[in-house]
Amino acid sequence: MEIEYDAREALIPGLEARADDPPLELHLIWRGEDEAQEADTPAEAEDGDGAQESGEGELSTRELAGVEREALIAAQRIRALVLVGTPFYDAKAGGERPLRYRDMAVLLRVARGAATLAADILQAEGVPVFCDAGEGYFDIPEIRAMMALLTTISSGAQDEALLASLRGPALGLSDSELAAIRMATPDTRVPYHEAVRRYREEKEDALSDKLRGFEARLERWRLCARHQGVDRLIERIYAETGFLAKAGALPGGAARQANLHLLVSRARAFMQTQGGSLHAFLRYAARLRAGGDSMSASAIGESEDVVRIMTTHKSKGLEFPVVIVLGMGRKMSTRSQSAPLLLHAELGAGLACVDTQLHSERDTLLRRAIRVRLSREQLAEEIRILYVAMTRARERLILIGDTGCAQVPALWKRGNQAGSLRAMRTGLDMVCPALVQAGASCMLREEEVVAGESRWRVFAHVGGAATEKEPRSDEAVMRMLAKLESTAATDAELIRLLDFTPQDARRAVRKTSVSAVIRDEKREAQAEEGDPLAPRATELMRLPRFMQETQLTGAQIGTAFHRMMRMLDLDALRASRDIAGELAAQRERMLEGGVVTQAEGSAVSVRMLVDFFASPLGVRLLASGRVEREWAFTFRRSARDGQVQLVQGVIDCCFEEDGQWVLVDYKTDSPRDVQAVLDKHRPQLNVYADALLRITGMEVKERILYLVRAGAGYVV
Fold it and tell me: What's the pLDDT at 174?
């Protein structure tokens, strides 16, 4: 191969191996006999010349089914590791602590199709995830739901958008209700939107009432779109359906809400620059989607307590306590080797020899040589990628692969014989022959294998993901129900039947935000001191409509400043000799791209940005090798009453300096009484500092409050 993996490429562990280090895990999914017959030809039977695998950017139906099974196994292992509080040695903290979701990463060779599918399955199994699948902004699930609803408002005659709208947050019909509409008009030649209209007008039941109410909503929204603009329409949909709040309650809620807010901003920018109707905005969005628009706000969700799903390429340079590698059974694509024109940097171009008289073609020696060379180089690249994936783990490595067959392939049994390397087509082909040589059967439910200096646990899952519990048949459930009917049911029997684990209310974790924590502590302190002016439970926070329409509030200016600071290209600022000019150019690009509106751009001047980066604080920030902006976090915290809180917040900015954090928080408060502003925001910065220390293990050397209007930073 291109690289000889010898002692020069060997990894030297930074920590000494311990006797209780967990073994490597390999989960093999074996197909049943019927499934194996429908699967692709086994790897050892292919010669690489005419294989028909899926391309690099797409997965076949069989491969997608394999991803589903692999993701179910991954969800089981993740839940098992987290729920029991599996300890691991945290080198940064210098001791052991329980594993959390954020300590785990799921790596995939190909993201398109597989990453989003794996994320959906993990979320359905109760595992919070952050998926950086490289998808475009308009392909994000919450944005797809909104665009489908906007399409239905514009034209209700598009069946796909209508189905998504009926199923989505505006109405929330179930699958059975959607099926009932079609069964009422079984003629498949009748479009679905016509079936909806007939059911709405001809039926008198609860479902028809829902459809009539939905149609009335659509009419109100169409009126809003015509007279108030697309941006106001989207805001009204958020308010009437509660979609924004629902998105915030999902895993990665802050990122989802940021994406939905960005949709409003882009619609407002479109209305201000191009004007036009809802239909024009939808055509504009379609052009952006076709062009691969990827300007999303989802990246702020990476530091939450979630499992990260990413490609192996994006994991380069990163390490995680637990790494789960999916798609070990995915075959390499050989489509490029069967192209009419084969190209190689050294060997040149290879074309088939065409006989015009016999109307036939045959391979030339050069074309065969190029194909062999390309095959070897591709295999070497696949080995390097697997090497990267397996070396991202610090504590636990879990490999999961769908074999696609019902028995151990002959390639695995041959071991390291001549020609075995060239016949490898999957990651399993690179790992399993060594395990089989070490004595593994790869067909037992669980077995331990020692291969060289590494210890392995190999699990076999026949026909899909193996569950932790025994399968319960309908007959067993009926017998248990009959027993409960004839005798007095005990709590233990009910729990066993319902498969339910009761939770102690005192140990329940309450999710809250940093501002809510500060507000609650302030109320408790004022209540203890008997302050008659303590704030009430509910406060009027919304401004009158005339103020919203004529000027931006301090909070809105602060939001715009935060957004611009997050979107600035720091590398360009570091390389520029004219920081003021570079800031003005980047600000102009944000206005043109709809990142900020014209009103927000007018409120946040270039001078505000220049003042920050010209200050000693800005110089220190640009000199830092690690800067985090709008860094979302989630961590456990004990409240004053002893209850455990799950605190969620976003740190404006922090950068590393001398191995410690410098915490920066931007505020647009009036600088008239600086000390009062510092006292007001000191508790918030203390919570941020606590979160940084507990999550990253690095001390916070300074807490700095930067007052935007004063153009100065103050140490808190």
Answer: 85
C-alpha to C-alpha distance for 535 and 531, rounded to whole angstroms: 9
Residue 704: beta bridge partners? 664, 715
What are the residues facing 399 on neighbouring strands?
Answer: 26, 325
| Residue in this structure with the two tokens 């490597």, named with its chain if needed | 24
Q: Strands 660-667 and 360-362: what pairing? A: unpaired
Tell me how far apart the alpha carbons of residues 632 and 305 are, in angstroms, rounded to a whole number.
9
* DSSP 8-state code for residue 701: E
User: Could you give the CA distance from residue 90 to residue 662 in angstroms, rounded to a whole number?
Assistant: 22
pLDDT of 663 above 90 = yes
The 3-state secondary structure of 555-621 reads: HHHHHHHHHHHHHCCHHHHHHCCCHHHHHHHHHHHHHHHCCCCHHHHHHCCHHHHHHHHHCHHHHHH
By C-alpha distance, which of 691, 692, 716 is closest to 705? 716
Q: Each residue of 481-539: pLDDT tens digit?
A: 565 555 555 555 555 555 444 444 444 555 555 666 666 655 555 554 444 434 443 33
Whole-model pTM: value is 0.49
**Helix (H/G/I), strand (E/B), else coil: 349:** strand
pLDDT band at 647 (very low <50, low <70, confident <90, very high): confident
Range with the largest mean pLDDT of 141-150, 252-261, 339-348, 505-514: 141-150
b/e burial code for range 455-473 (CB count within 10 A of at least 16 → b): ebebbbbeebbbeeeeeee
pLDDT of res. 427: 85
Closest by CA position to 259, among listed 280, 244, 281, 274: 244
Q: Which long-range contacts (CB under 8 A, 24 or more apart) does 573-582 make?
A: 573/613, 573/622, 574/622, 579/610, 579/613, 579/614, 580/606, 580/610
Q: Give the per-residue pLDDT at 543.
A: 42
Alpha carbon distance 591, 599 (integer Å): 10
Angle (CA) 262 267 272, round 5°: 125
Match 């302050």 to its residue by tokens. 531
One-letter amino acid at 153 equals I
Q: Which stretches within 466-551 are classed as H helix?
A: 474-486, 491-498, 514-529, 545-550
Is the distance from CB of 107 to CB of 312 less than 8 angstroms?
yes
How far apart, in whole angstroms, are the C-alpha atoms of residue 446 and residue 461?
9
DSSP helix/strand/coil, 133 = coil
